[in-house]
């Protein structure tokens, strides 16, 4: 990781870990004092070593966590138009890097009403303005550079789909990593569903957002595996709090054994992914 000119990716990983730490602290995702959310994120991202080949994945990760920080902060605050603007401006910036991010916007709007409970006309308008903010600058640059249609090819990618469920384009390392992260996500979902009565209503709502987004991401990956890298990056961002909740708040013989199994599998996949690249 520290060779091959990946220092910027390492810096972004550290910054993303700090943001995940803040996301946990501000929203009390774990009801006890624990660093497990940020630690889980750092371990899973390091495990998916191949994601560091493209710096775009590191940027997507940072932006996704920053989006959640702003998005969660407007819980039950229907007048927080400034923060929803910033949240969707971050989402719009992420779509500049990974245009398929825009597919998730309708889902996020639904979650704004159902889980964040801050949806209204003003918030939707503010979110739209934030979403198109980065494109205002790109369009202005295009006009001044004499290429007014600069942004058109970018949006055309939304209508371009690879072969459905064509897993031949995905390496074994990516498949093993994806399957393990998906398994951790499902484990976290089941655990939280069985134990969410112990958490506050706000925490339940936020974890439901992680669950919904992960289910959508897994379906998206299954249909378009050619986009596995950015989608896996987002899957890790959503999975880290969920598996952290499981690890930090369970203390039975079975779950204690599962913790060591998770550690061993993570270590094995990490070594395998590093070995594959080098």
From TrEMBL:
Protein name listed in UniProt: Uncharacterized protein
Superkingdom per UniProt: Bacteria
Record keywords: Membrane, Transmembrane, Transmembrane helix
Transmembrane segments: 7-26, 32-52, 59-78, 84-112, 124-155, 175-194, 206-225, 231-250, 257-277
Annotated source species: Leyella stercorea
